[in-house]
C-alpha cells in the first residue's frame, strides 16, 4: 500500500473493480428500465433509492409483462430479505456508530459493496466505517451514472444480459475464494451450492437464497464448534494453501 | 416517450417509493438491532460463515438457475467454464480486477463467439 495516499483515492482504488463492473450492468439496467417505460428522472431515482441490480432488472421485466404493482412490491420484498443477513454479519464492525450513520449505511448497502466492505473489514484492521460508507457512495455513483447513461442511450444499445451479468458473478466468485480460509469453508460452499439449487427450484423465489445461506452457514458453525471441542486436530480445520502468501500476512497483522 | 407499460409516470414514481421502502426495511433494522446490542459470541461465529455461503449461493443461482427458477440444462456451459477460470485466477492472483476482467473476456468468448 502506498504511503501518503489521500483517503478518498485509496478508497476509490479499493472500489474501482466493482465500479468498473457496474458500468456495463448499469447501462443494461438503464436500457431495460427505459424500455419498460421509466423516464430518465425515475431511472435516476430508482438507482439511488433501491440500488440493487437484481431488483431493478426484476422491476423492469415485471413492468414489461404488465404485472400489477402489488405483485412487484411483494416480489421485491422477498428479493430484498437477504439484506437482513448482510446487515447482521457486518454489524460487529459497525458497533458504536450513531443512528444517522447506520441509517445511511443501510440505505446504500447492497450485495456488491457489502462484499467489498466485508472483505476489507475481515482482512484489514485499519478499515474504518467511514471508509466503508465511502465505498458505498462511490459504488452508488458508478451505478446511478451508468443507469442514467443507459436510459439516455435507450434502445440504441443491444446488450447480452447473461454476459453482462457475469461481471457480478465473477466478483462473487472472487469474494467466495477470498473468504475460503479453512477446508471446512469449502465444505460449506459445496453445501450452500446444493441447497441453493434445491430451495430455489422448490420455492420459486429468491427466498431460496436466504434459506440456503442460513442452513449452510449454521451447518458450518455447528461443525466448527463440534470439531474445536471434540477433534481439534481434524483435517477440516486445516488452513487452505494460499499461493501468494498474502492472506497469511493479513491474518498475522490482524492480531 | 414510447411506453409499453400501462402505468403512468406517477404510478412508476409510487412504485419506486414503495420498492425503496421494502428494500430499506431488511437493510436497516437488523443492522440497527445488532449494532446497538451486545452480540453473543456464537452469533459472530455463525455470521462468519454467512458471506461465503451467500456468495456461493449467488454464483450458483446465476450459473445454474434460469429466470423461471428451473435448473439450466443447456446454454450455460460457457458460464460454467468461465466460472472455473475465474475461480482459478482468483485463487492464484488474489486480484479482484483480474478476476472480473478475465471472467468477462472468457464469458464473451464462450457465449458470444463460440455460442456454448
From TrEMBL, chain B:
* Keywords for this protein: Membrane, Transmembrane, Transmembrane helix
Q: Which residues form the signal peptide?
A: none
Membrane as UniProt keyword:
yes
Give the stretches traversing the membrane: 12-34, 46-65, 71-91, 98-115
Supply the InterPro entries for this chain: Brnchd-chn_aa_trnsp_AzlD
Query: Protein name, please?
Result: AzlD domain-containing protein
Question: Native species of this protein?
Answer: Lactiplantibacillus daoliensis
Amino acid at each position: 500500500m502506498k504511503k501518503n495516499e489521500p483517503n478518498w483515492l485509496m478508497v476509490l482504488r479499493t472500489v474501482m473493480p466493482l465500479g468498473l463492473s457496474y458500468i456495463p450492468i448499469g447501462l443494461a439496467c438503464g436500457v431495460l428500465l427505459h424500455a419498460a417505460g421509466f423516464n430518465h428522472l425515475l431511472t435516476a431515482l430508482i438507482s439511488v433509492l433501491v440500488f440493487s441490480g437484481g431488483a431493478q432488472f426484476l422491476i423492469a421485466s415485471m413492468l414489461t409483462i404488465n404485472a400489477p404493482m402489488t405483485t412487484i412490491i411483494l416480489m421485491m420484498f422477498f428479493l430484498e430479505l437477504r439484506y437482513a443477513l448482510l446487515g447482521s454479519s457486518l454489524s460487529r464492525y459497525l458497533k458504536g456508530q450513531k443512528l444517522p450513520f447506520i441509517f445511511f449505511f443501510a440505505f446504500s448497502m447492497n450485495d456488491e459493496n457489502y462484499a467489498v466492505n466485508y472483505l476489507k473489514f475481515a482482512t484489514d484492521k485499519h478499515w474504518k466505517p467511514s471508509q466503508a460508507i465511502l465505498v458505498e457512495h462511490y459504488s452508488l455513483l458508478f451505478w446511478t451514472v451508468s443507469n442514467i447513461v443507459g436510459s439516455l442511450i435507450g434502445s440504441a444499445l443491444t446488450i447480452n444480459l447473461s454476459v453482462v451479468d457475469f461481471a457480478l458473478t465473477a466478483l462473487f466468485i472472487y469474494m467466495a475464494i477470498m473468504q475460503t480460509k479453512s477446508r471446512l469453508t469449502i465444505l460449506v460452499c459445496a453445501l450452500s451450492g446444493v441447497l441453493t439449487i434445491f430451495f430455489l427450484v422448490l420455492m420459486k423465489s429468491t427466498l431460496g437464497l436466504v434459506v440456503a445461506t442460513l442452513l449452510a452457514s449454521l451447518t458450518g458453525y455447528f461443525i466448527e464448534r463440534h470439531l474445536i471441542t471434540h477433534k481439534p486436530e481434524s483435517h477440516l480445520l486445516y488452513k487452505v494453501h494460499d499461493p501468494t502468501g498474502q492472506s497469511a500476512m493479513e491474518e498475522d497483522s490482524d492480531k | 416517450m414510447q411506453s409499453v407499460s400501462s402505468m403512468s409516470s406517477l404510478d412508476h414514481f409510487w412504485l419506486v417509493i414503495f420498492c425503496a421502502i421494502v428494500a430499506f426495511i431488511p437493510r436497516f433494522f437488523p443492522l440497527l438491532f445488532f449494532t446497538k446490542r451486545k452480540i453473543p459470541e456464537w452469533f459472530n461465529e455463525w455470521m462468519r460463515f454467512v458471506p461465503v455461503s451467500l456468495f456461493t449461493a449467488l454464483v450458483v443461482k446465476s450459473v445454474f438457475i434460469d429466470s423461471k427458477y428451473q435448473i439450466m440444462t443447456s446454454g450455460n456451459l460457457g458460464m460454467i467454464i468461465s466460472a472455473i477460470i475465474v475461480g482459478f485466477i482468483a485463487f492464484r492472483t488474489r486480484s479482484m480486477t483480474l478476476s472480473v476482467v478475465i471472467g468477462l473476456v472468457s464469458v464473451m468468448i464462450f457465449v458470444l463467439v463460440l455460442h456454448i
